[in-house]
Queue: 4 jobs
Job 1
Amino acid sequence: LAAETFLAEIREQPEALRRLAARPEVGEAAAALRRRGIDAVRLVGHGSSDAAASYGVYAFGLLPRWTAFRDSISLTTYYDAGIDVSRSAVVAISQSGRTPDVVEYVARTRARGALTVAVTNEPESELAAAAELLIPLAAGDERAVAASKTLLNTFAALALLAGAVAERPEVVRAVRRVAEQLEEALPGLEDAVEPLAPTFAFVGRMYVVGRGVEFGTAREIALKLTETCRVAAEPWTSTDLSHGPIAAVDSMFPVWAIASRDECLPALMAAAELARKAGATLVASGSAAGEVAGAEFRLPVPEAPLPILSPLLSIVPGQLFAATVARAKGLDPDRPVGLTKVTLAQ
Amino acid sequence: LAAETFLAEIREQPEALRRLAARPEVGEAAAALRRRGIDAVRLVGHGSSDAAASYGVYAFGLLPRWTAFRDSISLTTYYDAGIDVSRSAVVAISQSGRTPDVVEYVARTRARGALTVAVTNEPESELAAAAELLIPLAAGDERAVAASKTLLNTFAALALLAGAVAERPEVVRAVRRVAEQLEEALPGLEDAVEPLAPTFAFVGRMYVVGRGVEFGTAREIALKLTETCRVAAEPWTSTDLSHGPIAAVDSMFPVWAIASRDECLPALMAAAELARKAGATLVASGSAAGEVAGAEFRLPVPEAPLPILSPLLSIVPGQLFAATVARAKGLDPDRPVGLTKVTLAQ
């Protein structure tokens, strides 16, 4: 059955989150980061791992108030630019631990004095060996090519690491609470995405809009739709949508708005309204999905105990939507055309 | 006539580049940056200005070997995260100088001790007033809603600033030489894009692939196609293409590869080959366009005197392609539906 493995792994996520929250390595890595004088956190990864890196910028920015950014990998691996990284932490993300340019980036920045942390589901991987510190994702074996629980645990690992650096133990408790909320919400969410499948079976392009803490969610949902449903889905911040892309939107071009209750919500609502006026069919998800005016479909999720953890819940409707729409299109997220579980491209 | 103003402004670019290269403000800003102990350059902007920011990461990384990154605007303007920016330079880009959250970002980071530089075509704008230093783009009045010369001068301004910080006066000479090369190449490029129009008039989605120095070019070309031709065009690095998006590519999904002769070229060629194998119609541009195997269309440009300046030439086929395809679709880049010259969205 198509998507059988992908769906099973989506349902395993509450358990995977609890396993991660119990691991001691996050606290050990945080202690090492605190001991060293760190000026900036350089996040690197490709695909879903890069979407998680976008989230990491906010986890570090809002919890310990550290500068964090998605670093250019090519400046180090191709151009060998020799930028000073001696006061940087590197957080390198690869579910397989085998992404070649990420492994190379870690080797080179470590040699130049950066404190390197591998975030991977494979503790025996090349990436784990290359980095000084390891945070194992503890997601268990993931077999569907479309990642779910490894991705959710990557977001959670970054929140836990940033929380531990900030010495805020309530983040661990909040991740455990999110696991419970997700467990309770999953059956209802699975039912809620079903009616969307016929409408979206013929969609060729979409925008996914999020801002701030939810921009990484938008990137992940857009990528999941692209790889499983072959939809050209592009993520935008709510403000960037109005700086050009809105010109392409019409009634054949649905827009998905991730509306979570936080400081960015007014900007998100303004972007959703702009898309609606351009004729787009609106899908609203997130804890404030009910507040998006004119949304044709709503996929609300519970409100996380800490706003920074919202994505751990708001990613899930995107996963379920991808599974459902892929099946309606006769595609299989367990084995998308042209992809393999481990990507070794340079 | 549709695109008349856009085309006229594309043709004015060599002159606009020469005007910018003659301005003294870049050198003054560079001296101020050198005097202050700067740990990192925070680049901010939306739309085309954000594409230029992607380029700025490489200009600062490769010339003075400084850490530069596209900063999160929302962490400062919405979340007021209070991150330490006292050893940062802020380079804030807005052609109109009126983008509200960019102006607010500058005001707040300046109050927190960052050295702020406005890069704008409007020296009397709010952004210019908010920042400590000003680099005027000197592009002259731009009337088409689709930006061309202000965007090219933004890329050039970042190269000139990074070159001056690195005390490499040859960058100024090289920009002047690029202006000459562009002047010579423009008529041939205008002829070269004409045959592409019938093929692309019905295209609804595309990928634009670049890596390293040319990733900002890929972002700018994709955005230009989206806003002028209503194509869902998404930019990817060559490596990220293989981490998911390649699954959506087929014979109805063209891929544009920007191939410039530098350290990233092998990675770019590998991505182009992957797209070709997936059945995509390939467009190859850049100085190494002739080396991309299996490209159905080639839009080569001259090799810039310094590799870091390649984008100043490789952006232009994208502009001309956008103008030509828009006309074939009956659209007008001077006045795209749903856009205005100044975007005031929050």
Job 2
Amino acid sequence: MPLTTPIDPPTRFTVTRTTDALWRVTFDNPPINLIDPTMIVELQGLLSEIERDDGPAVVVFDSADSDFFLAHYDVAADPSALDALPPAPTPFHHWANLLIRLTKSPAVTIAAIRGRARAAGSELALATDVRFASRERAVLGQFEVAFAAAPGGGPSARLPGIVGRGRALEILLGGEDFDGELAERYGYVNRALPDSELDEFVDAFAARVSRFDRLAVADVKRFVNAASLPDDDALAAEMDAFAAALARPATPALLERAFTHGFQTRSDVEFNLGAWVGELIAEPTTPTSG
Amino acid sequence: MPLTTPIDPPTRFTVTRTTDALWRVTFDNPPINLIDPTMIVELQGLLSEIERDDGPAVVVFDSADSDFFLAHYDVAADPSALDALPPAPTPFHHWANLLIRLTKSPAVTIAAIRGRARAAGSELALATDVRFASRERAVLGQFEVAFAAAPGGGPSARLPGIVGRGRALEILLGGEDFDGELAERYGYVNRALPDSELDEFVDAFAARVSRFDRLAVADVKRFVNAASLPDDDALAAEMDAFAAALARPATPALLERAFTHGFQTRSDVEFNLGAWVGELIAEPTTPTSG
Amino acid sequence: MPLTTPIDPPTRFTVTRTTDALWRVTFDNPPINLIDPTMIVELQGLLSEIERDDGPAVVVFDSADSDFFLAHYDVAADPSALDALPPAPTPFHHWANLLIRLTKSPAVTIAAIRGRARAAGSELALATDVRFASRERAVLGQFEVAFAAAPGGGPSARLPGIVGRGRALEILLGGEDFDGELAERYGYVNRALPDSELDEFVDAFAARVSRFDRLAVADVKRFVNAASLPDDDALAAEMDAFAAALARPATPALLERAFTHGFQTRSDVEFNLGAWVGELIAEPTTPTSG
């Protein structure tokens, strides 16, 4: 009976079942909460549990690391773990598939963002239903353009319906960091709360929603999804473009340079990545593809 | 000549013809401005007048009760008054039909929100063109989910295009009260004004627009409607789901409990309904349908 | 070799090539930066240069006049300069065509708004990708409705996806001025900055984006355009309605009256046009078309 076989405990996050109806998923993948193939596979397993008839009504995503909600995708990781999943056009498409599935989850998903949520980390937040952020500690951004790549996990399709066309273009083309306060002003997050109040606020909201009728919640999500979710085709096209960028010379060369400066480690580069990537292309030896 | 027969004066609101071009509709249905079948029938009659060639250019909706703009739908009311209207799939669909007609009105409609505008009251506000709110006294919300029902009057289709997907889901799934200031930050209302300035501000805006050319105003509404109104089918589907919820056991049982605590009276429950419904489901005897 | 023939230097704006990748277009058409047929022809020539393979990555639009970014269209101008362009249904449609082309430009376009950007001036800003405004000195608005015309350059189709349906209707039906602070609150501009910081902020953002990979930038624009640009047909319909208004009696009569008060000169009327047009229709001799 495969559907009821307990899956292995996840290694990239913990799942706390506060009640049957309310689960908390805490990302915990030191040193900086990179998203890697194993995390994608484990999140697909989690979604299978969430989608069960006795699954939770509400799932909160937070982080064990107050500096990093989810740093970004681990571009150095061995993709072989993804072989456990149904085939996809490229390894990267597994990420888009996961996010598409997440947006259609029967559960209400809430991102409680403390620390950095950049690139794929921002994309996961944008694929949840509701985003609350720490005013002092949240940092959101999509820095991919600085690595000569369009983001692949859907933000170009999702952001215009969340923050409007002009702010979407600024976020995606500037590749800068947005702190909690500015993210709220733009609508990038629902609300930024004082860091000392974020947990209590999220807990109260999540507990409240978890007590509501499941059919009513599912109806609301279905109607709002119909009014606001982008087509799967649009999301696949974004990932095609991201994968194509990775196959051009510019992106790997830029990544290589970034690694020599501490990219993907708990370094100043990762703490201040939005500012740092603004200088990345300026160095004279940068290859260009354009 | 039925089209020119004067209709009976409405009993649920008053109509003040400030000028031929500017009408004010003041909801006045004590004790808390519930929306009932008679109000729906009277509002349909009002729309017939508005749609006449010599109808007004601008209609302001406000309330005679500074605590309640429109409390919500009167679920205890005898629906027989609705028999005066063309047939609809259920009594509730008359409400959706009214709001669809309101959004397509040739007149510019303005909601001046002071007091509570919850559930169907919020839905009416969302079906007007422009929403101004009292910063201190306005309260908006969609609490239906706490009664095990998805809202039926269109907010799941309308809110994503007004406040964005994430904030729409928070409003609809949390079922909480939004005060004037937060409603403005979210875009739920155009603007929240100090209570002492609201009337003068709305009057000036309405008078100004009422002096503008009718063809130009109609062109603008037509183009903005084409760019932003949801399909009628999407709105009908929401009302189907609402009616289905009312036919399940959970919603009537929750309503019955609420009535014992003062629901639909001028009570603490109605004053603080957003907070109160958060505890409604938590009681152990609550039936669930999920 | 027509493609490489240098075009005549523009007379309505200057083009500063800060780098090959970053151009600055400074509107300079005294006395108040009206948009006229010659400016439209020159902007079409500019777009041809921008669209060349060696065109810029980023184009900033600003103004030599700190009181007027772009006042509005010069309704008194001889349209014959437009004969240089491919045929269009009416002279006005050349403006819509220009804006449609601008939104699809391969370059990232940034409006740095200081001074008044009303009617067609606002429309140009709305057709750029990113809008930054002076908090103290920017003024945006669409006053056409006060002249008995629906705006023709796309704002009815664009604004709902930028500021939401309710705020779009307020902007278009009220015809009032929006200062920088309110424009930011509504999302009409991305951000309003203190006037003393605007230039440095825009320069830094533009220079940063101009260093990024051209293919990545083009991918992002393509995806965001697919998710957020209105159909060309919707934009053409708006211009049809604007041209029809100009052919009715009301609009020319209102314009004639405005000219006697200083319209299109560096006058109090132009400085405070949003307020002034609110009184325009109230005069008893105004013809009406409705």
Job 3
Amino acid sequence: MAVLDRRHFVRSIAVAGAAANTQMDLRAAEAAAPPDVTRTLAAWVVRSRAADLPVAVHKEATRTFLNWVGCALGGSREAAVDIAISALSPFAGPGQATVLGRKERLDVMHAALMNGMSSHVLDFDDTHLRTIIHPAGPVASALLALSEYHPISGRDFLHALVLGVEVECRIGNAVYPAHYDAGWHITGTVGPFGAAVATGKVLGLTEQQMMWALGLAAVQPVGLREMFGTMTKSFHPGRAAQNGLVAAFLAAKNFTSSDHGLEAKAGWANVLSISCNWDEIIGKLGRNYQISLNTYKPYACGVPLHPTIDGCIQLRNQYKLTADQIERVELKVHPMVLDLTGKKAPQTGADGKYSVYYAAAVALVTGVAGEKQFSDKLARDPAIIALRDKVSPVIDKSIHEDQVRIAITLKDGRRLEKFVEHVISSVQNPMSDEQLETKFLDQADGVLPAVQARNLVGLCWNLEKLDGAAQIAKAAAA
Amino acid sequence: MAVLDRRHFVRSIAVAGAAANTQMDLRAAEAAAPPDVTRTLAAWVVRSRAADLPVAVHKEATRTFLNWVGCALGGSREAAVDIAISALSPFAGPGQATVLGRKERLDVMHAALMNGMSSHVLDFDDTHLRTIIHPAGPVASALLALSEYHPISGRDFLHALVLGVEVECRIGNAVYPAHYDAGWHITGTVGPFGAAVATGKVLGLTEQQMMWALGLAAVQPVGLREMFGTMTKSFHPGRAAQNGLVAAFLAAKNFTSSDHGLEAKAGWANVLSISCNWDEIIGKLGRNYQISLNTYKPYACGVPLHPTIDGCIQLRNQYKLTADQIERVELKVHPMVLDLTGKKAPQTGADGKYSVYYAAAVALVTGVAGEKQFSDKLARDPAIIALRDKVSPVIDKSIHEDQVRIAITLKDGRRLEKFVEHVISSVQNPMSDEQLETKFLDQADGVLPAVQARNLVGLCWNLEKLDGAAQIAKAAAA
């Protein structure tokens, strides 16, 4: 439910930047596919050099990776991950790679599956807003597991991560929204391309092999939107990572596939989407990078709540507010907020994710809104309940979906106001490095000792200079 | 090429039996899906008992299995299988299960992948003519690998095989031809359902778990028709087997999925097909069995050549013909035969698969048309070349696609005639047990010692009475 809503929300705020994407897609679909989409993409990937990447792209890749590691730690003790490890480890190979935040070591393929699952299971991972792809899951999960088997320098790791994200998001741009609207969970259907390209680059595939890897990825899409709300949703990016690795390793040994897996009449795009804008895949390659458009969720709940949480935390910190000072919290919100998150008296942490009353209160009291702030314990906390009941949201049609207008009246008569114009984690207002680090440490809390978590953050920021990215995997084991 | 052609051929001969399938599909698509397709199917599978199966169904399941084992042996030394084992065995787990016809033992999942590939790589496996699904590949590959890890009696094995084939073919019936025409390789897209149901039955899944297994299978379709002619085609049924096993093992540990994976708006059928006849999935469950409609290819080449080969072998055996007796071979054939298999002077065995001249000659000389009869050596054999040049096919529009009219003139002046009304391996004219056994032994030749192959045939025929189906896997190791 939360995710479906998120989609509509995200699409409307993304449309301005995407320049009427839908119409472009439909026009493009009328034209025949260019004959060499797969080859053009493969050739570009094979020729790309780490030195080609702008510094800002490298930086965003580091932020993407750090956020992904934190999410994988945060989700590592969820039931879905426990079950998957228990069900599949009897078939796993040598302990080649780390399951982040846990003590188990599995073969590269199974480690990629588990890390892809844990990084997505709390719906707290990164988002490419234009397509709602969660780009890191499939790509970083495959790459990091691979790094413990096949050494990868930090610099090459970041380069491959950028390429994998580029390819999956470009393919996503080409078929969005038709492909998503049809019911595919796009992260799992484009993810195998991203994982195959990233790991194939590291394995040194030739252009021909890279084309085959794309073809092998094309036949292994994963994920239907019907599974949202079940454990199977988190399986999608994990299996996508695994499928991409399988594709790359097979192609590296000259397992043949089509040279036209993307564009052929019975190829991926035509079979999985009623429209495709081919230029989105092969136009301006290397002139811009999709990872620059990646965003990170600051709060462990649906996007409609984010502006309110954002503004409440800002006011709390600016005025050093405590709950007992507050008389009244008035919110002017977009109509969707009450539609989707209008529960007045949530009884559990999970219910709290559907309550703007609870979200405002917990943000004001704790200054954070990670997974831990949506616990059953806090949902029953008298101080939070008292404050929750002082929150009065009203609909204001002039308020955009990524905005909120907050007015807090204090018991001493002061009135504090905050207008959030662009919620944090939009492309216009990204999370700062510090905020990403705070999110990371909050997710690692209870999974890794604090000293280990701080050390791991340092390694992530320093990834570009590491001799081996595998250091990070090893440092993330419980 | 051969396979695409085969599709058109098969569809036209299957239409009579399928009662204007296309129109039924389109009408059905206008109606909303019944609310509980997944539950109905799961409940039926969970309640089904081996004793419910008619004897003839058990018998056909045995024939399906024997044919599949032979095909897996026959394909076991192909390059695609060599490469896949080489590329993926570094990640494989304990040597739990046999790769048929080889010495490697891999974990259950990888063994299923390899056996699924080898059984399909020569395009010589079984066919459900109405949908062109190759039913055994995904289901038997998953089941046999599982039997070496989780003991399965021969009787339970056959029962699970029947159920798996039933589910994959029913789902295929519901979406064929729209789904196939869209570009999906149907064996790989319905295969995960078959494998999940068969192995889930053996693992004792509850109704709820079986629904989840179907949901997990739904998110893992494999295969695009664009890959025909490449190694990736054989990957499809193998990966489908593996995906079904993953689904069953996860569901067995209560990994949750949707209860409506098949029929939901964003479920498998609506996302992967523009039409679906739901009644084909849940109507008359247990009143007929799709495995009864399974057919086996007698010849290792495209279907258009089969009537000619069939008739030539019959004449050869009936009159104990030798090549030097023959003056002239006249064929009246369907127009497609010359369109698709009109090469007059093939230089290689692979080319021979596109030559009705060569096919008639090799059938008359050897009495067989297995993979070995399409070798480079035989394509250059002077006796076969001499006879090949005496073959004169002419188009006759009164000849149906599964027919041929043959007239052989001997040097002594005799004229021998044969009209093939229904080619062997149609549902109307199935291969006999003896013919299946001959095909099996021909495929095993060069892979297993003759004594071992004969023993293995005996075990396959006797499967129903075996305490453990795993015996067969072990007896099929090189």
Job 4
Amino acid sequence: MSYTLYYWPGLQGRGEFVRLALEEAGAPYVDTALELVKNGGGVPAIMRYLDGGDVTRPPFAPPFLKSGRLLIGQTANILYYIGGRHGLAPRDEAARLWVNQLQLTVADFTGEGHDTHHPIAVSLTYSQQKKEALRRTRHFLDERVPRFFDYFETVIERNRSRGPWMAGARLSYADLSLAQVLAWMGYAFPKTTRKALEKRAGLARLQEAAFTRPRIERYLLSKRRLAFNNDDVFRHYAELGE
Amino acid sequence: MSYTLYYWPGLQGRGEFVRLALEEAGAPYVDTALELVKNGGGVPAIMRYLDGGDVTRPPFAPPFLKSGRLLIGQTANILYYIGGRHGLAPRDEAARLWVNQLQLTVADFTGEGHDTHHPIAVSLTYSQQKKEALRRTRHFLDERVPRFFDYFETVIERNRSRGPWMAGARLSYADLSLAQVLAWMGYAFPKTTRKALEKRAGLARLQEAAFTRPRIERYLLSKRRLAFNNDDVFRHYAELGE
């Protein structure tokens, strides 16, 4: 059975967490962000579900995933579903909750990363909140990045399986999401990220291991993988000193 | 079996989402926030898990819940676990994912509510970011509150069971969390919230129905329920014009 992923065109965004899981699973999926509007893709494909008066379980925002008759929203929720079906999460309940917990912590970090360039309102442009963005970014890089990075490094260190992953001996969707966040960080804040990864061998190894999985590597080299850009969740602004 | 809930003393906070679910379930639990330090409660009870070098699956932050040998972090994850064990979530997979999706959307709104008074950094006090807080609050009340409230109202309207709840014919933990958020909003932004609920009968009815459940009502009148205060996620500051 094929999935359909709905996400805004033109950026990786939170849709990328879902894409990486589907790519690693080798699961067939239609990515509406890459389809022409006349073929049912683009923004109208999303709005049809956000605004459609006949959608029984409407999503609040993309990404959302169609799987047969199911329409599933919220990134961590989508990944919980995919992970269970494609071996990207452990089978036993405790470990599956643990992976979900890690994913939600990756999501928290992602939200904080986004708010560095939009600390006041998503309805304003970056330049309309630049002063506040500079201030927030300083705190993010000095306080929040070390806190989160130390946390994930500790998680990897304490994983008794001693492999590159956060939970158990096998790759989970949370590992893919963490690798994606590290890649974003490298684009947005290259100096801070390079230094941070030099000091945290576990994180560097996890990213390398995740992004060299054959299917992931093939995906990253494909046209389906969009380039980092400043419409994305993590953005590079030179005036932030990186 | 008894649970132990770990959360910061002195505020409702995100721990309250878990408390409401446990209270509605009639599940016995120890709330370390209400225990003296000498009896194993208070902040040291939390730090032991955040900083303890022997914790295999460390939480990033409270709330977290101990259930037998399981240690579960991230609010939505805790609720997913409790909901499944105590009939506070539907049994079939699709509906359970839907409740999780709603909970994560409540969590997103909660995060945005928190950031109205802390738009720059959690390490700064409110007064150190008051100017930015005023600016963010205006956008929150004018743009985000209507957007989220309309969404949840629509969810209630489209629930085919036509009761007061968001998902199906029975109360779920997401309903309790939404009721809590509405109560917080009434404390933090009374004018906006009163007007918003006058226009959205579904939300007002859900809150009333949730908070008059016998066990919930008893809890809300008990000493275990702390008063709203300005250490909490949602805060009342007169200068914000409410």
